[in-house]
Every structure is written in structure tokens, then in C-alpha cells.
Amino acid sequence: MRAIRHRRRSIPALAALAAVAVAAPVLLTATPAAAAHGPREGRLAKELVEEVTARGAYRHLAKFQQIADANGGNRAAGTPGHAASAAYVHDTLKRAGYQVSYQDFDIYEAHTKTEKTTVLGGAESRELATAAFTFTKSTPAGGLTAPIALARVDETPGCDAADYPAGAFTGKIALVKRGTCTFVEKQKAAAAAGAIGVIVYNHSGTTPVRGGFSSPADGVIPSAGITLADGEALTAAAAKGEVTLRLDLDQEHVKKTTRNVVAETRGGRSDRVVTVGAHLDSVPEGPGINDNGSGSAGLLEVALKLADEGANKKGKGPANKVRFAWWSAEELGLLGSEHYVAQLSEKQKKDIALYLNFDMIASPNPAQFVYDGDDSDKTGAGAGPAGSAQIEALINGFLDKKGKPHEGSDFDGRSDYGPFIANGIPAGGTFTGAEGVKTAEQAKRYGGTAGAPYDPNYHGAGDTLKNLDLKAFDTNLDVIAHAVGTYAESLRSLGK
Predict the structure, then answer these.
(1) Cβ atoms 341, 418 nearer than 8 A
(2) To 5 degrees, how large is the angle CA 68–CA 71–CA 75?
(3) CB of 444 within 8 A of CB of 413?
(4) Deepest of 55, 63, 71, 311, by most Cβ within 10 A of its Cβ?
């Protein structure tokens, strides 16, 4: 799961970035309408839940760890580690009888050489912990030196022109609080107000904001992140008088090619496609076994058990076509799923009945989150497209029957459901938490440690096979199995 926050209604098209490097079929072969499966309805879901186990899926996690260990410690998009992961998934599914293809597309990789913020003035200058935004524009050699100007802090900090008083930001470095809108929107609003650089400070935690943009083309002015404490200290100092910073960023952008893996059942109605996805890439800093080897392994195991149930045998497959997808470059900004959805025709989009997303389902200090399809929590973005509420209800109902506590999670645009929602496709899914901090109430509900992140190893070298909660993993594997089995047989709960 990426650290970048996107508003779900403003996901960029990325047409230039997502140019196809190697043509690949979209796997939408027309299939005659399947016979009614009334007597079987509900049975497939039950059988998949019984057959899919954490022990079975663990072998895929172990393979992803082995691949990362053999390839510099990571499985990031555009690296040999990701290519080997994609080949493993592709070949495993091919042997199981699925129609499988690669979908290649171009990405850019950012290499940061310098990321420094220095507070000038007084007896001594001091440096702040700084994280250059991915695909930022570099500063001139030696950095930018300018006073800071404070963007208004409200419910949408630094998101709108009104947050930047006229004339107050010209030739200055904008200091903006993280939250609500995308980093691109904050940066563009600051640039439009005349700022020559932007620094975003965190809204929680003790680490700098690690933000970024979807491509180098989005980098308008030099942009970086700092910690909450440093941001608040600068804000307090600026209220008393002028504060001058030197922002020094040097980043190189390298073009690469990466690939999605897409597999679908040979039978089932191709105008009622059940699409299930997880991102396969890690961040460069670690092997990404929870983020998102867990979701990727879960999908792979469910797909294999579905094949064992005859999904790819003539006359035995489910009523509806099931399509599994392993996205690349999610950590760079949902690029794989965005590319996939962007190249679909309008009819192909309408043929997708729903999208299920599973990203981080074995966090070591987990909570059980279910995407809030009906906006009943009334936080952040609104409800998902029609049908999303029913998906949430299906998952919640299953967890309730299993006696598993759960709670809602906003569609905040941080994972691969984003492009599907933006195109009106109902979506849902689960995850067990990323860098957020577990509350005391959640610790009572789920166990674990209050005041600690759901995944202390999020986007780090410690996201390994040793740092997982396999009970949470098992619960979410059951969720995937139940949802896939249910929708493969019938879309009745969606009103279709």
C-alpha cells in the first residue's frame, strides 16, 4: 500500500506514462452464457473457505521472500525481484489452466541524491529530517533559499487557492500540512500562488512525510516532506517573525518497463466479470511480504483452489467469469491498475460487475478493516459506486458469522480500488492496517499493542516473512474465498 493519498475522484489518466511497451491481450474472450447454477449457489463459497488455508498460502509468501533475498532485498516495480515474482504468479496460474497474460507498461523510477532542509538564521543553522517527494523537480545546484509562508490549516489544508493568500507566497517556500487532498493538488495550488518550493509536514507520527507524484510530469516545483514536530516548530517560529530555509533536492528519473499479470477462468459469462486484485510490487526498501505479498499470496491460493473446483474445465466452471490481477507499480501511484482500467473500452468496463481489492492482510499488529462502501462511517470520501454497499455488507456478514470483529475503512484512494471506483465500478475488500496507530479500543477488540502502528515494518526492510500475523492472514483468506465463491456463482446480492 502506497503512502500517497489520492482523492478518489481526481485520479490522473496518466496516458503518457502508461504507454504499452509490449502489446498484450486484455483477456475478454466472449463466452456463451453459462447455465444457471441455482442448486450450487452458496456451495462454491463454502468449499473454497474450507479448502483455502494460511498454511497453503504461506508457501507463496515464502517464495516471495526467497525472490527478494535473491534480488537485492526487494521486489519493486521495474526490478528483477518484481519480474521474478510476476513470472512465478504467471507460471503457477498457467499450470492451473487459467488464461494468463502479461500487460507491460512504462514507469519511471526516482533516484534521490540529495534531500536536505536547513533552517537558517540565528547563531546556528540546523538541518531537518527530510524526504524528497517521488518525482519532485530538483532545486538549482546549492538549493533554494527563501522565507517560508504558511498555508492555511483547516479541514482541507493547502488544497485550495483560498489557503494561499494573494501575494503572500510569491518567491517563498510554502509550508503545508498533510491531509485530505493529493500531494499533486497541494503542490499545484502552492505553485499557482507563486511559491518556488513546497514542504509538507506530517499530520501524525515521528517520521517525515514520504509523498510523491505519479510521474515526473507532475513535479512543478521542488517538493519534500518533514515531520509533524518540525512542521509545528516552523509554524510557531513563523508566527513570531520571518523564517528562512534552504531546500536542496536532487533527484534523477529513470524510465523502465514493468508488467501486470492478469488471469481469468476459461468459462463463465464475460459480461459479468468478477475482478479481484492485489499489487505484487514492494517498495525498494524491503521485500514487501505483508505489503503486499500477503494480498498477492491470498489471491494466488484462492485462484488455485478455484481451479481445483473445476473453474477451467468445460461445463464445470462458475456462472460468472472470474478475473484475477496482480498489479505492478502500485507503490509508485497505482500505475498498474490505472493503466489497466485506462485501456479498457466502455463496454469492457461495464462488463466488470465488481472489483475486490486486498492490500496488506497480515499486519503484525492488526485491526480488521472493511472498505466502507456505504459511507456509514461518514469520514473522508463518500460512498463507493452503486453495489459497493452490498459488497461491504457481504464481507461484514461473513465476518459476523465467523465471530470476527471488524470496522470500516474509508476509500481514501491509497490502493488499487481507486481507478475502478473512478470509473463507476463497485468495489470492496479488506486490509489489516499500515502505518496508522492502533487505539486502546482496537487493542481490546483485536488484541495487540495500543499506541503502536498496525505494521511497524511498513515500507521498510523489516517487512519480512518473520513479521506477519498469520491468524489475521487466515481470516482474510477466508474473506477472499467467500467473496470470490459467492460472486462467481451469483451476483444476486448486487441486484444483477
Answers:
(1) no
(2) 50
(3) no
(4) 311
Cis amide leading into 71 (omega within 30): no
Residue 278 three-state SS:
strand
**What is the β-pairing status of strands 352-358 and 269-279?**
parallel
CA 63-321-290 angle, to 5 degrees, is 25
What whole-number distance in Å separates Cα of residue 190 and Cα of residue 182? 13
**CB under 8 Å to 123, separation ≥6 — which residues?**
none
DSSP annotation string for 21-88: SS---------PPPPP-GGGTTHHHHHHHHH--HHHHHHHHHHHHHHHHTTTT--BTTSHHHHHHHHH
pLDDT digits (tens, 9 = 90+) for 330-367: 998 899 999 999 999 999 999 999 999 999 999 999 99
CB proximity list for 18: less than 8 A, separation 6 or greater: 105, 106, 335, 338, 339, 342, 343
Contact status, residue 219 vs residue 132, Cβ threshold 8 Å? no
Instruction: Find, among 299, 282, 300, the residue nearest to 291 by Cα.
Output: 282
**128-143: pLDDT as tens digits:** 999 999 999 999 999 9
Distance CA 439, CA 420 (A): 31
Q: What distance in Å separates the CA atoms of residue 414 and residue 332, rounded to the nearest whole number? A: 11
For residues 408 and 311, give the distance between their C-alpha atoms in angstroms, rounded to a whole number. Answer: 32
Longest pairwise C-alpha distance within the chain: 81
Q: What pTM does this model have? A: 0.79
Which one of 264, 330, 392, 435 is the catalytic residue? 330
Q: How many CB atoms lie within 10 A of CB 123?
A: 4
In sequence order, what E strands does 196-288 have? Answer: 197-201, 223-226, 244-264, 269-279
Span 437-463, pLDDT tens digits: 999 999 999 999 999 999 999 999 999
Active site residue 309: no
Alpha carbons 335 and 83: distance in angstroms, whole number:
16
Other C-beta atoms closer than 10 Å to the C-beta of 16 total 9
Look at residues 87, 31, 98, 472 and name the one whose alpha carbon lies nearest to residue 304. Answer: 98
Grid cell listed for 358 = 486486498
Q: How many CB atoms lie within 10 A of CB 446?
A: 22
Among residues 192, 132, 197, 187, the alpha carbon closest in space to that of 158 is found at 187
Please give the backbone phi and psi of residue 51, each rounded to the nearest 5 degrees, phi first: -90, -30
- Pairing status of strand 352-358 against strand 407-409: unpaired
Give the gyration radius of the chain's Cα atoms.
Answer: 23
Locus of grid cell 473454497: 48
Q: Return mean pLDDT, the chain.
A: 91
Beta bridge partner(s), residue 234: none
